[in-house]
Amino acid sequence: MRSVLFLHGFMGRGDDWTKLQDVFGANVGILAPDLPGHGSALGRSSSAYTMDGASDLLVELLNEEQSQQPTVIGYSMGGRLALHFALRHPERVGKLALVSASPGLKTEAERLKRRELDRQRATEIGRDLPGFLERWYTMPLFASLENETKQRLIRKRSENDPAGLTRSLQGMGLGTQPSHWEHLQNIRVPAWAIAGANDPKFVSIAHEMASVSSIEAVAVPDAGHAIPSERPQALAELLRELLSTY
User: Fold this and answer.
1) Local structure of 220: helix, strand or coil
2) Out of 43, 92, 115, 120, which could bridge 175 as a Cys pair, Cβ 3.0 to 4.6 Å?
3) How confident is the model at residue 192, as a pLDDT?
């Protein structure tokens, strides 16, 4: 049976992908785990809260589910993990879709600055997760989200364990992740970098990724950064179209 592995973003959960799963039909196995520090995936070893460790856990999951080369679809942090997984375990990926995702920061100076920001955010999460979420969704990145969607996401994200989110941010944040820009040319499977047309930063990143690799840049109309929450049906239809061409 063909299978799809969905990887959610920071503060998300595996069930974030529910609205997209039907598009793949009953003959496709769906895997949508909670990533370390999120939902029920708590109390893992320290190594699990790293890109390498989380990637190795995905191999264990695929082995348990007898899934050899799934299509891997990741959003934001999950997209960064999907890319890392594809580079670390290329034999376990059939196709790759990176949604609102970056290959990492290019310089150590950028990563150092981001690690400091992530430390500050981790402190805020530990002190007051609901308050942090209220501030998080006021960022320009989420400006196109309707207020009802923002409030729904805040309620859902508040159910996470603050300590688990802190460990994830410290071990898998953008400041900790190595840059994969120089490794993009090693992606040999059909791959797409998908961004919301109203998210200029990630549209630019997607096109830059495409310029140095075989990855194809694709934009979702009338969508910002949080495409799975904002335009799930449009994303599902796009994925069905893209994946059916290979």
Assistant:
1) strand
2) 115
3) 98
pLDDT of residue 246: 60
3-class secondary structure for 116-154? Answer: HHHHHHHHHHHHCHHHHHHHHCCCHHHCCCCHHHHHHHH
Token pair belonging to 197: 């047309």
**Which regions of the chain are under pLDDT 50?**
none
Residue appearing with tokens 């061409």: 245
Amino acid identity for residue 123 in this structure: T
Cα-based angle 192, 55, 112 (whole degrees, multiple of 5): 85
Q: Which CATH superfamily is domain 2-105+178-244 in?
A: Alpha/Beta hydrolase fold, catalytic domain (3.40.50.1820)
Inter-residue contact 31 to 63 (CB < 8 Å): no
Q: How far is Cα 60 from Cα 50, in angstroms, rounded to an integer?
A: 15
* Per-residue pLDDT reduced to its tens digit, 12-34: 999 999 988 877 776 778 999 99
CB atoms within 10 A of CB 222: 11
206: how many CB neighbours lie within 10 A of its CB?
Answer: 25
Which residues are CB-contacts of 73 (< 8 A; sequence separation ≥ 6)?
Answer: 4, 5, 6, 7, 17, 82, 96, 97, 99, 239
> What is the pLDDT, as a whole number, of residue 23?
77
Judge whether 126 and 161 are in contact, CB under 8 Å: no
**How is residue 23 written in tokens?**
């598009």
Pull the structure tokens for residue 190.
């059909």
